[in-house]
Design brief:
The protein is globular and about 55 Å long. It folds into 2 domains: about 40 residues; about 70 residues. About 65% of the residues lie in helices and about 5% in strands. By secondary structure, the chain is mainly α. The protein has a two-stranded antiparallel sheet with strand order 1-2.
Length: about 110
């Protein structure tokens, strides 16, 4: 999302604006735990990338037994769904979480065998 020539980058979550791409990247990672959205990416691509990132964080926290991180990731997943409800249904979120769980379990199994 572009806001103006003076502040070309705007956070899709909270509206924070910056003239520098790097500042927006750092803001999204630190404040929202998300990868940056830049004008060259479509909103749909960005939303599905965030869905995968948050689902992976949720599953990693769940498998590690970290309830605080798991709950924080869940809140972010619900917020992403609420904000972008028209782009995917709630079942998609559960499917992506299940895929990420299978992928992480498969990777940990391969590490143990190696």
């Amino acid at each position: 999302m572009r806001s103006s020539k003076h502040n070309p980058y705007q956070c899709p979550e909270c509206g924070y604006k910056s003239t520098r791409k790097w500042n927006m990247k750092v803001h999204l990672e630190k404040v929202h735990g998300l990868a940056p959205f830049f004008p060259e990416r479509s909103v749909k691509d960005w939303v599905f990338a965030q869905l995968r990132i948050l689902a992976r964080q949720y599953v990693e926290a769940e498998l590690a037994g970290d309830k605080h991180k798991r709950d924080q990731s869940w809140k972010r997943l619900i917020a992403l769904y609420g904000y972008h409800r028209g782009l995917f249904c709630i079942d998609t979120m559960f499917d992506v979480i299940a895929e990420e769980r299978r992928d992480l379990e498969r990777r940990s199994k391969q590490k143990k065998e190696a």
